[in-house]
Structure formats: structure tokens, C-alpha cells
């Protein structure tokens, strides 16, 4: 049996620190962009500081910086603990860590300079794409190599989800980013027209499905039972949840292409699969919620558990709203409006953000051998700041988006549009300010967390002798 001291937690610490740093950077840039939408003069007439340059920096910072770092860190920790074995190769783990941070620094430099493929969530140019693929292969070798060396026969369900996240992201990223380079920092996709759109949204929607969904689910299936001090409510249901997502999610991306030149049968596949996804998504949410509710006494007073519970509620909302927006009538109203932005961010901030915050609060003190958080009061303040932020953000964009969609569709008796573009912009302007305010609340809460966790790990409180030994 592997001794607790043999588990490699140093590289895990580095990944988690990087995740916190990129969360603050990525979300701060998001707040800056929200401010620019309400006060366009904040572009400062600079080509490097305009919305079009900074928006991919925000999405890449949040997805590839914050989310990938926390998933890499927690996956390497969980696979060791549940496999009862140290990492397959510790040197390889550091190659993955520093390789990924180098990629993120390149993104931080090239995107504001305007080097971009223009493909959403895949903006980075071909030299960086090659580096991403190489580092990802090293990460896959490290993760699956550790599972292959496990000293127990069982593969814990979190590792199923992590494995799917690693394999599917590798497949769809490589295929979507096939390109013909014309210079060091410019390339063109090998696909054209409708084919390019289909492949792009096969990637784009599944980047959400397997990075922001399957990966986060994997993390939560380990940490929710830990913080609840209870086993998973239904382990069998967790396996059903896994196969439901893997079986249907990869088909749903074409719901982004409704009313486009993509063949109608391809659009219909996306609609049908989106509706089917309702079932495994809510089954998984029910499983996690019941795990938390199995310790109601602790749930009433433990704000880390409440962060997890809030994340599950937002997951339910997002996985209800996604299939709804895939239905043609709703898509007709919502597409290209602020409603879509509200949907994405209620999921990103509510589901992914709340899950990650809960993991940070539970995991970081234990990684540094501390017994308690420095300030429970600050934790409570963060809880309310985060929830006010998400609520303001989502509600503002729901109202703005639904109103915007209605105004775009409304016609006079002679067939002309009832509202001009400027009138639609004037309608949603105050809601864009509320959206900015929501972002400020969320980021301020995040800064509270950073301060609280910094004080926790640097305080002189009596450390625990070792992190908990049960997997």
C-alpha cells in the first residue's frame, strides 16, 4: 500500500495556485469587457485594448487558464488517491505544468496583438495549437499511465469522467484546428463554409461539454462526498450519468447552427440530442444534491457545502435552459441576443465558478496541511457576493436578451421592422450596466477568497498531520 508521503502533491499545489491566478485574471478581463460595452470610450482608441482583442483573452484565460489548471491539478490528485499509487512519472507532471503555463503566456501575448484564427474558443494560432496538442498528449500519458499502475482493481467514477474529458478534448481540438499555415502567425482552416461551421461547433459545444461539464463533474464526484462526509448517494446512477453524457453530448453542437445553411437534418440532430441530454444531466444533478442532503445538519451551516449545492442548482438551470434554447422557436428569439450570453455565464459562473470556489475552500487548506480557514466570516461574505453577482448578471441579460429578440422580430403591417438597431441598443443599455455590476460583485468575492486562502496557508495555526487518507 502506498504511504501518504509517496503521493505527489507539490505539482498539484502549483496547478491549483495557477488556477486561482488565472481565475482572477480571466474574470477581471471579463469585467473590463462588460465595462467597455456600457462605456465604449474605455477602449481608449487602442487597437490592443479594444473588445475584439480582449474578448478571446477573457475566454481563453477562463477556460484554458482557470478551468484547465484546476482540472489538471485535481485530476492528478484524485487519480493518485483513488488508485492508491503515486503518479506514473513525476518529471512528466512538471513538464505538463510548465508546458501549459508557457502556452497561456503565449496566449496572453499573441491575442491582444491580434494573432487569431477568429474561431471561438479556438482563437490561438497554429504554433500554439501544436504546443497544446503536445502538452495534452503528455497529460494523457501521465493520467492513464497512473491508472494503469493502480494497486486497486476498481476505477473510481471521477476518473471515468476525467478520462472522457481528456480523450474527447484531444480528439475534437486536433480535428477542429487542422489548418494551412501561410506565415508564422497566420493560418487558414482546412474546412470551408458550412463544413467549417459544423466542425467548429462540434468543437465549441463539446469544449463546454467536456471541459466545463464532464471535467467539473469528475472533480465534484470526489469532493462532494468528501465535504459531505457521506458516500455518493447512488454510485450506479453516477455511471448512468457518465454514459448518458458521453453518448449524447457530442451530437448536440449543431443546435448553434439552427436557421443556417447547414443541412436541416444536421440541425435536427443537434435539437434532438440536446433535449435527450436533459435526462442524464438532471440525473447527475439529483445524485450530487442527494449526496449533500444526506448530511442536512452540516449543510445548514457549512458554506462550502452550500457553494456546492448552489453549483448544482445552477447546473440544473443551465441544462434546462440549453435544451430549451435548442428548440427552434426559442432559438429564433434568443440567437445572437444577450440571452445567450446570460445562459453561458449563469453556467460558467454559477456551475463552474461555484464548484471551483467550493473546491478551493475545501482543498487548499488541506493541501497546505491547515485545519481551518482563516476567516469563516469572510467565507460567508464571499458566498453572498458571488450569488448576488451571478443573479444580477444572469437576470440582466435574460431581460435584455428577450427584449432584444422581440424587438428584432417585431414588424409593422407593411413588413418593415418596428424598431431600429439604435432603439434595441438603447433598450438594453441599462441592463448592460447591471451585467457589469454583477461581474464586479463576483470578482470582488473572488478577491475575498484569495485573501482568505492566503491568510489560511500563511497563518501559524496548528497543521494537520496529513491529508485525509481515505479515497
From TrEMBL:
<keyword id="KW-0349">Heme</keyword>
<keyword id="KW-0812">Transmembrane</keyword>
<feature type="transmembrane region" description="Helical">
    <location>
        <begin position="303"/>
        <end position="320"/>
    </location>
</feature>
<dbReference type="GO" id="GO:0022904">
    <property type="term" value="P:respiratory electron transport chain"/>
</dbReference>
<dbReference type="GO" id="GO:0004129">
    <property type="term" value="F:cytochrome-c oxidase activity"/>
</dbReference>
<dbReference type="InterPro" id="IPR036927">
    <property type="entry name" value="Cyt_c_oxase-like_su1_sf"/>
</dbReference>
<feature type="binding site">
    <location>
        <position position="205"/>
    </location>
    <ligand>
        <name>Cu cation</name>
    </ligand>
</feature>
<dbReference type="GO" id="GO:0020037">
    <property type="term" value="F:heme binding"/>
</dbReference>
<keyword id="KW-0408">Iron</keyword>
<keyword id="KW-0186">Copper</keyword>
<feature type="transmembrane region" description="Helical">
    <location>
        <begin position="384"/>
        <end position="409"/>
    </location>
</feature>
<keyword id="KW-0249">Electron transport</keyword>
<feature type="binding site" description="axial binding residue">
    <location>
        <position position="345"/>
    </location>
    <ligand>
        <name>heme b 1; low-spin</name>
    </ligand>
</feature>
<keyword id="KW-0472">Membrane</keyword>
<feature type="transmembrane region" description="Helical">
    <location>
        <begin position="265"/>
        <end position="283"/>
    </location>
</feature>
<feature type="transmembrane region" description="Helical">
    <location>
        <begin position="340"/>
        <end position="364"/>
    </location>
</feature>
<keyword id="KW-0813">Transport</keyword>
<keyword id="KW-1003">Cell membrane</keyword>
<feature type="binding site" description="axial binding residue">
    <location>
        <position position="343"/>
    </location>
    <ligand>
        <name>heme b 2; high-spin</name>
    </ligand>
</feature>
<dbReference type="Pfam" id="PF00115">
    <property type="entry name" value="COX1"/>
</dbReference>
<keyword id="KW-0679">Respiratory chain</keyword>
<dbReference type="GO" id="GO:0046872">
    <property type="term" value="F:metal ion binding"/>
</dbReference>
<dbReference type="GO" id="GO:0005886">
    <property type="term" value="C:plasma membrane"/>
</dbReference>
<feature type="transmembrane region" description="Helical">
    <location>
        <begin position="429"/>
        <end position="451"/>
    </location>
</feature>
<dbReference type="InterPro" id="IPR023615">
    <property type="entry name" value="Cyt_c_Oxase_su1_BS"/>
</dbReference>
<dbReference type="InterPro" id="IPR000883">
    <property type="entry name" value="Cyt_C_Oxase_1"/>
</dbReference>
<dbReference type="InterPro" id="IPR004677">
    <property type="entry name" value="Cyt_c_oxidase_cbb3_su1"/>
</dbReference>
<dbReference type="InterPro" id="IPR023616">
    <property type="entry name" value="Cyt_c_oxase-like_su1_dom"/>
</dbReference>
<feature type="transmembrane region" description="Helical">
    <location>
        <begin position="126"/>
        <end position="148"/>
    </location>
</feature>
<keyword id="KW-0479">Metal-binding</keyword>
<feature type="domain" description="Cytochrome oxidase subunit I profile">
    <location>
        <begin position="14"/>
        <end position="471"/>
    </location>
</feature>
<feature type="transmembrane region" description="Helical">
    <location>
        <begin position="91"/>
        <end position="114"/>
    </location>
</feature>
<protein>
    <recommendedName>
        <fullName>cytochrome-c oxidase</fullName>
        <ecNumber>7.1.1.9</ecNumber>
    </recommendedName>
</protein>
<keyword id="KW-1278">Translocase</keyword>
<feature type="binding site">
    <location>
        <position position="255"/>
    </location>
    <ligand>
        <name>Cu cation</name>
    </ligand>
</feature>
<dbReference type="GO" id="GO:0006119">
    <property type="term" value="P:oxidative phosphorylation"/>
</dbReference>
<feature type="transmembrane region" description="Helical">
    <location>
        <begin position="235"/>
        <end position="253"/>
    </location>
</feature>
<feature type="transmembrane region" description="Helical">
    <location>
        <begin position="160"/>
        <end position="182"/>
    </location>
</feature>
<feature type="transmembrane region" description="Helical">
    <location>
        <begin position="202"/>
        <end position="223"/>
    </location>
</feature>
<comment type="pathway">
    <text>Energy metabolism; oxidative phosphorylation.</text>
</comment>
<feature type="transmembrane region" description="Helical">
    <location>
        <begin position="59"/>
        <end position="79"/>
    </location>
</feature>
<dbReference type="GO" id="GO:0015990">
    <property type="term" value="P:electron transport coupled proton transport"/>
</dbReference>
Amino acid at each position: 500500500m502506498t504511504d501518504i508521503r509517496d503521493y505527489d502533491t507539490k505539482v498539484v499545489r502549483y496547478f491549483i495556485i495557477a488556477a486561482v491566478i488565472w481565475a482572477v485574471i480571466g474574470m477581471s478581463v471579463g469585467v473590463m469587457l462588460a465595462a467597455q460595452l456600457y462605456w465604449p470610450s474605455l477602449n481608449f482608441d487602442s487597437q490592443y485594448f479594444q473588445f475584439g482583442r480582449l474578448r478571446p483573452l477573457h475566454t481563453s484565460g477562463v477556460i484554458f487558464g482557470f478551468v484547465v489548471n484546476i482540472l489538471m491539478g485535481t485530476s492528478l490528485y484524485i487519480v493518485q488517491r483513488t488508485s492508491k499509487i503515486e503518479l506514473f512519472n513525476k518529471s512528466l507532471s512538471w513538464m505538463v505544468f510548465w508546458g501549459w503555463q508557457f502556452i497561456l503566456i503565449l496566449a496572453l501575448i499573441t491575442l491582444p496583438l491580434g494573432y487569431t484564427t477568429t474561431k471561438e474558443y479556438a482563437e490561438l494560432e497554429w504554433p500554439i495549437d501544436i504546443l497544446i496538442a503536445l502538452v495534452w498528449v503528455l497529460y494523457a500519458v501521465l493520467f492513464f499511465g497512473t491508472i494503469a499502475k493502480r494497486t486497486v482493481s476498481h476505477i473510481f467514477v471521477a476518473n471515468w469522467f476525467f478520462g472522457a474529458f481528456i480523450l474527447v478534448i484531444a480528439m475534437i481540438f486536433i480535428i477542429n484546428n487542422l489548418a494551412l499555415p501561410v506565415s508564422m502567425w497566420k493560418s487558414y482552416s482546412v474546412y470551408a463554409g458550412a463544413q467549417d461551421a459544423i466542425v467548429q461547433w462540434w468543437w465549441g459545444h463539446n469544449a463546454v461539454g467536456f471541459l466545463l461539464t464532464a471535467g467539473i463533474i469528475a472533480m465534484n464526484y470526489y469532493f462532494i462526498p468528501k465535504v459531505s462526509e457521506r458516500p455518493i448517494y447512488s454510485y450506479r446512477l453516477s455511471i448512468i450519468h457518465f454514459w448518458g453524457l458521453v453518448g449524447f453530448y457530442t451530437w448536440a453542437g449543431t443546435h448553434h447552427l439552427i436557421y443556417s445553411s447547414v443541412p436541416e437534418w444536421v440541425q435536427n440532430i443537434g435539437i434532438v440530442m440536446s433535449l435527450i441530454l436533459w435526462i442524464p444531466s438532471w440525473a447527475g444533478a439529483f445524485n450530487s444534491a442527494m449526496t449533500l442532503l444526506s448530511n442536512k445538519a452540516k449543510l445548514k451551516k457549512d458554506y462550502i457545502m452550500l457553494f456546492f449545492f448552489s453549483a448544482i442548482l445552477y447546473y440544473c438551470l443551465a441544462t434546462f435552459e440549453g435544451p430549451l434554447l435548442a428548440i427552434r422557436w426559442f432559438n429564433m428569439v434568443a440567437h445572437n441576443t444577450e440571452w445567450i450570453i446570460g445562459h453561458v455565464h449563469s453556467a460558467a459562473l454559477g456551475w463552474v465558478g461555484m464548484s471551483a470556489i467550493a473546491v478551493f475552500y475545501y482543498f487548499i487548506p488541506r493541501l497546505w496541511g491547515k485545519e481551518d480557514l482563516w476567516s469563516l466570516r469572510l467565507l460567508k461574505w464571499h458566498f453572498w457576493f458571488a450569488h448576488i453577482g451571478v443573479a444580477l448578471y444572469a437576470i440582466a441579460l435574460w431581460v435584455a436578451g428577450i427584449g432584444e429578440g422581440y424587438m428584432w422580430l417585431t414588424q409593422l403591417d407593411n413588413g418593415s421592422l418596428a424598431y431600429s438597431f439604435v432603439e434595441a441598443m438603447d433598450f438594453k443599455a441599462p441592463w448592460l450596466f447591471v451585467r457589469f455590476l454583477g461581474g464586479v460583485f463576483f470578482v470582488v468575492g473572488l478577491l475575498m477568497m484569495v485573501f482568505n486562502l492566503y491568510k489560511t496557508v500563511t497563518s501559524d495555526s496548528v497543521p494537520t498531520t496529513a491529508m485525509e487518507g481515505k479515497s
